[in-house]
Design a protein that fits this description.
By secondary structure, the protein is α/β, with parallel strands linked by helices. A four-stranded antiparallel beta sheet has the order 4-5-8-9. α16 (410-416) crosses α19. Among the domains are: 80-192, Alpha-Beta Complex (Glutamyl-tRNA Synthetase, domain 3); 327-401, no CATH class; 404-502, Arc Repressor Mutant, subunit A, CATH 1.10.10.350. α7 links the parallel β10 (207-211) and β11 (234-238). It contains 21 helices and 13 strands.
């Protein structure tokens, strides 16, 4: 048997992190078994489905590296097939036309509520005579199509994540609507639970992998498979992604759109790696960094958790940082150049390449994310999710190497009030004046000489130099920063500027 799985998002919004995680599990399972990963767009919600959402989904899956083998197939292009299959169930006597009005349904629900009963359809039109149907039609009523559900059934399946699951048919809410009302006796638009089964049968899906919020749907869908006399696929219901409070991750409670993670500076490799850890644990618990191919080799549902997976921003940052730190200087430079250009930094990407790579070599080990690409969206995201921490931005970290002036932080200004700080800057400038070319060796020697000359602690001299050069008392390697600034003849003017502001 060839494994065939599918991801079937609805284009009623941007690609959700939960949908992306489900797509990932499908992808890994397919690749592990040498099977096919199919993309289907469930766009039958005509009012809410939009082309831009479809494009966002396609682009998001591609960005994550989750390439599909077949598709995309659009449900709106298959309506004739669905209506044909509805008619098949009508012809078999397994479905019927229901003329119950909206008012009657509401009265039914209110009566059930008053009696402490769960809301359900009471199947009152299951056995209408042709005369009764004609009478309702004469009143102008338009029937929905309902599928007959035997209340005495118990539906069971062996879930690949949760083991044996049983569901009483009597808990499914009565006979299920599978198609909306149509005009002049026509079959209206078929509904989700029905078209999903028709599609999965037609596409020969062997395993249905989706979130645990679909468990009740699975019970209904198994009955439809049986009605069509088709092989029931294996099911796996994965844990939901939860926020810090244990609530289902939703756009009202935090960041959910895949491309918002791109805006925040996450790499696709880092994000997809982290998503795999949301609910699945690799056999080697010490190995948390892996490629898609490596994950596919190890992936199985016996290592997928039943409990909800809590989203952890700190863990995502750590995973993402590992990918940035593994990049070569050349790779990371190529990634950062567009951000520097967008920031308005003046440089030539070709003639200044060596200088740019030196900057990257200096700051690369401190990077957690790529720079933010949309500041306005960042503010919106931060307001939505206060757990999202701010991190050092490569654009801000490298600003000192591209600008003439420097702003002094409150910490730097406070440092300059210390005894000996001003004298240290003056002594460094004097030493620079007698230095033909600054190297790592003589830069270190200057610091040593000034420390001895002033009879102060070396830390004071180093902090004074850093504050004068960068406006901060913390940052990347001081000597390397100094050498880079010296290349662009920015070190002397910076130190002189600091002294002028102090005087």
């Amino acid at each position: 048997m060839t494994v065939r799985v599918r991801i079937a998002p609805s284009p009623t919004g941007n690609l959700h992190i939960g949908t992306a995680r489900t797509a990932l599990f499908n992808y890994l399972f397919a690749r592990h078994h040498g099977g096919q990963f199919i993309l289907r767009i469930e766009d039958t919600d005509l009012e809410r489905s939009k082309p831009e959402y479809t494009q966002n989904i396609l682009d998001g899956l591609k960005w994550l590296g989750l390439t599909w083998d077949e598709g995309p197939t659009f449900q709106t292009k298959r309506l004739d097939l669905y209506r044909q299959k509805v008619q098949e169930l009508l012809d078999k006597g397994l479905a019927y036309r229901c003329y119950t009005s909206a008012e009657e349904l509401e009265a039914m629900r209110e009566a059930q509520k008053a009696n402490g009963l769960a809301p359900r359809y009471d199947n009152r039109h299951r056995n209408l005579t042709p005369e009764q149907q004609a009478a309702f039609a004469a009143e102008g009523r338009k029937p929905v199509i309902r599928f007959k559900i035997d209340d005495d059934r118990e539906i069971s399946w062996n879930d690949m994540v949760r083991g044996t699951i049983s569901w009483k048919s009597s808990d499914l809410g009565g006979d299920m609507v599978i198609a909306r009302a149509g005009d002049a006796g026509d079959i209206g638009q078929p509904l989700y639970n029905f078209v999903v089964v028709v599609d999965d049968i037609d596409m020969e899906i062997t395993h249905v992998i989706r979130g645990e919020d679909h468990i009740a749907n699975t019970a209904k869908q198994i009955l439809l498979y049986e009605a069509f006399g088709k092989q029931i696929p294996s099911f796996a219901h994965t844990p939901l992604i939860l926020n810090k409070k244990g609530q289902k991750l939703s756009k009202r409670r935090g960041v959910t759109s895949v491309f918002d993670f791109k805006v925040l500076g996450y790499t696709p490799q880092g994000l997809v790696n982290y998503m795999a850890l949301l609910g699945w644990s690799p056999p080697d618990s010490t190995k948390e960094i892996f490629t898609l191919d490596e994950a596919a080799k190890e992936f199985s549902f016996d290592r997928v958790n039943k409990a909800g997976a809590k989203f952890d921003w700190d863990k995502l940052d750590w995973v993402n940082s590992q990918y940035l730190h593994k990049m070569s200087v050349a790779e990371l430079t190529d990634l950062l150049i567009p951000y520097w250009q967008s920031a308005g930094y003046e440089f030539d990407p070709v003639s200044d390449r060596a200088f740019l790579e030196q900057i990257v070599a200096l700051i690369g080990a401190s990077l957690v994310r790529l720079p933010v690409s949309d500041r306005a969206r960042l503010e919106e995201i931060t307001a939505l999710d206060p757990d999202l921490s701010q991190v050092q931005d490569a654009v801000e970290m490298s600003r000192i190497f591209f600008t003439s002036n420097v702003d002094f932080s409150a910490e730097a200004q406070a440092h300059f009030q210390q005894a000996g700080a001003t004298e240290a800057l003056k002594a460094i400038l004097t030493a620079l004046d007698s230095t033909e070319s600054l190297t790592e060796a003589n830069a270190g020697e200057i610091l040593k000489q000034v420390t001895k000359q002033l009879n102060v602690k070396k830390g004071l001299v180093m902090r004074s130099l850093r504050a004068g050069l960068t406006g901060e008392v913390h940052g990347p390697d001081l000597i390397q920063s100094w050498l880079l600034l010296h290349q662009k003849v920015l070190d002397r003017p910076r130190l002189q500027q600091a002294l002028e502001r102090l005087s």
